[in-house]
Amino acid sequence: MQQVNRPTLTTALVLTPTLLLSSALYANTVTVQVPSVTFYGKAEVQLAHTDKGIMRYTEQGTQLDMPFSRFGLRGEQVLNEHITAFFTYEVDVRGFDEANTQSPFSARNTFIGIKGNFGQLIAGRNDTRLKTSEGGVDLYNETSGDIAQILPGQDRLGDSLTYISPKFAGFELSATYVLGQDNERQNGKDGVALSLAYGDRALKSLPYYVTLTRAQSLNGLDATRLLAQHQFGDFTLGALIQYSEESEGARSGTGGYLSLQYAYGNWRPKVQAGRDTSELRQQTAANHYTAGVDYLFNSQSKAYFYVTQLELTDTSDTSVALGLQYRF
């Protein structure tokens, strides 16, 4: 007869604590979510010739440069069913020429925030709400044709708090509060910017975008800005008007830009014209004209050519640029 092995009392006593321990560990297991992190950036090379080097972001003569190239990390993690934490760490890369080999990096947007049904709350170094209120009117952003060439208020400031509300019936309210220690031109005084937007900044879900923004004691500036964009078929028209005055000074004036872009296959011919009389970015009243064309290889890459001219009261400067840009 075949003998059947039955568990003894000793075996049961040994197995039971092991099973209990395994069950206890399983019951108390905590699931940890790995943050979602994305590496991104912009690589650009540009060949430019500038007559005098008077305008910002240029040097006299012919230059081979990588204007506003950068890389960064952005990520987010769900904290609970109501709150998600997110961050951005971004640096400017300037290593093309010999002068920048010792300091090839500089800080750009670097912040941490939380978001939920209440909107977004961001702390750190960030574009002010006055700067972001430009929408897409600036067709030559981050070039010598940038509206910051003559228009004040295009600032990225540290020690700032930013709030962005959820959209309600197409409206979005946002605010910047800058602590005095980083409000460089205010002698330690805090600054603020408040912006109300309506429509779609990307002009995808809606063909229009409008913003009204007020800044007070923001890096030495008090300003009111009104912006409007509208897409008519293949044409996109933008207009911006701004009244600027020194927070603690006598200079003041009105400025603005008009821009027009046409989508023709992969080609994007575009023109932009601006004027400012505040003398806060340039030493005199200034006119600024730019015309050029982009060729889009895909959604991430383009080649471009443009000519931009700055006219001051007693002098002028012209720059011509040819470039290749890749966003990743």
TrEMBL record:
Membrane topology type: Multi-pass membrane protein
InterPro entries xref list: Gram-neg_bact_OMP, Gram_neg_porin_domain, Porin_dom_sf, Porin_Gram-ve
Domain Porin positions: 11-313
Residues annotated as signal peptide: 1-27
One Pfam family linked to the record: Porin_4
Subcellular location: Cell outer membrane
Keywords (A to Z) from UniProt: Cell outer membrane, Ion transport, Membrane, Porin, Signal, Transmembrane, Transmembrane beta strand, Transport
Domain of life: Bacteria
Gene3D superfamilies in alphabetical order: Porin (2.40.160.10)
Assembly and binders: Homotrimer.
Name of the protein in question: Porin
Organism of derivation: Alishewanella longhuensis
